[in-house]
Design brief:
Blueprint lengths: L8 E5 L4 H12 L3 E6 L2 H15 L4 E4 L7 H13 L4 E4 L15 H28 L2 E5 L12 H21 L5 E7 L14 H13 L9 H12 L10 E4 L7
The protein binds NADP nicotinamide-adenine-dinucleotide phosphate.
The site of NADP nicotinamide-adenine-dinucleotide phosphate has 28 residues, from helix 1.
Length: about 260
């Protein structure tokens, strides 16, 4: 595909791992200037080194827990300080954790709403003045499992449904200002998302086997495949695509 992100300034949250890491590397391949955000220092540095090697541009690397007060502001402020402009925001940082109504506290719900919904919302607000100047765009990362009515998924699915609805409203709110907002909704993708549930390796494989069984394609996505779709949505090849929801699920048999 004929992507060209030369001189485009791109913020990628969740750049230290999985889908965000592959998106960052692919943006670098097409010469974007990057602000990479994550919490794991060694993984973020690995991604940054890879990006520098292929693009010649040294990325701005920010080690931040985005749900902490002040973090989102720091991302936007430091990006503008370094590059003086912003073209694209990729809201990829996210977390899966199981939570049920039988628990006695609301901590899981609060954390997932914070990282999966509040952070993209707040970053959108903070980035908007800069994106209006460049007629830029935002790509949110949702999930294809928006109607997964299985115990344990309530907080995650609510947060991602919120992000889905947010995307459509945001797109409408900023359409006249020339800013596009879209959402990519991947199916099961091999990243650290499930490993981060802190379950043993055997159960991780068991979980993947069960998820694969529900897929017509019988195959888990590689994060590079999702990254391609992110770049397509963010690119100038799609100048009129906004408010769109791009589902890539491998034909789910049981939603
Ligand atoms: N993998 C799938 O099957 C799948 C399917 C549908 C949608 N998604 C979505 O895709 C997105 C990327 O996930 P992934 O699959 O690539 O998982 P991943 O490998 O676990 O990556 C998640 C990323 O989010 C970052 N992150 C999480 N909490 C954060 C916080 N509080 N502050 C800053 N960064 C934070 C992580 O940073 P650190 O690792 O540095 O802490 C990491 O870079 C998520 O929004 C996820 O919901 C994934």
């Amino acid at each position: 595909m004929d992507f060209n992100f030369e001189d485009k300034v791109v913020i990628v949250t969740g750049a230290s791992s999985g889908i965000g890491a592959e998106a960052a590397k692919m943006f670098a391949q097409y010469k974007a200037k990057l602000c990479l955000v994550g919490r794991n220092e060694s993984r973020l540095q690995n991604v940054a080194q890879h990006c520098e090697l292929i693009s010649g541009n040294v990325p701005l690397c920010l080690l931040l827990d985005l749900i902490q007060p002040g973090s989102c502001g720091e991302v936007v402020r430091k990006t503008i300080d370094k590059y003086k402009r912003l073209d694209i925001l990729i809201n990829c940082a996210g977390k899966l954790q199981m939570g049920t109504l039988h628990e006695e506290d609301i901590d899981v719900f609060d954390e997932l709403m914070a990282i999966n919904l509040r952070v993209p919302y707040f970053l959108t607000q903070l980035c908007l003045p800069h994106l209006i100047k460049t007629k830029g765009n935002i790509v949110n990362i949702g999930t294809s499992y928006l109607e997964r009515y299985k115990p344990g998924f309530i907080p995650y699915v609510i947060s991602k449904n919120g992000l889905d609805i947010f995307t459509k409203h945001a797109a409408m709110e900023v359409v006249t200002e020339g800013v596009r907002v879209n959402i990519i909704k991947p199916g099961v993708t091999r990243t650290n998302l499930i490993q981060n549930l802190n379950i043993d390796e055997g159960f991780v494989n068991y979980a993947y086997d069960n998820l694969i069984a529900e897929l017509g394609l019988k195959k888990i996505f590689d994060p590079k495949e999702v990254a391609k779709l992110i770049l397509l949505a963010a690119s100038n090849l799609m100048p009129r695509m906004t408010g769109s929801s791009l589902k890539m699920d491998g034909a789910v048999i049981i939603a």
